[in-house]
Amino acid sequence: MKKKNLFNINCISLVSLISIYMLLEYIILRLLNLAFMNNVVHIFVSIFAILIMLILIKSGIGNVAVFISVIILFIFGYLVFAFTYRPEHIVEKDGKQMVAYVDSFLDVHIYYYDYINPVVRGSQLKIYENYGSGGYDPFDREEMPVVKQYIYYDEK
């Protein structure tokens, strides 16, 4: 009985977590032209993964199946993280504090958004910079490389 009760609590927690995230991200923040910072999204995803593992363990699935599921989840999660990771930096650009997202898979692109606070940022792209071929993070270098192309977006 206690095991079943704990399973129900984990399922309710998982559904609640997903509902809260969807409500905040897709309804409230979008109406205000805001978005979560990466660290907040990573926290939600981590809690989600832990709850899924707890549900799998408490559901009575055999230990071998849970172990295989955990291994597959970590391998898949690592691959997704490796190919979609975009480091974010809080920088000062044109006298204004902004959040810079670096996309450096084949070419180096930086996307700047308004900095609001450590939890949320503006959702409208303000500045785009292209540094050409690379695969590096320009903010990790001592001297910023030369920008090949940049675009400033207006408020509209």
TrEMBL record:
Organism, scientific name: Clostridium beijerinckii (Clostridium MP)
Keywords on record: Membrane, Transmembrane, Transmembrane helix
The organism's taxonomic lineage, starting at the top: Bacteria, Bacillati, Bacillota, Clostridia, Eubacteriales
Recorded superkingdom: Bacteria
Protein name: Uncharacterized protein
Transmembrane segments: 7-29, 35-57, 64-85
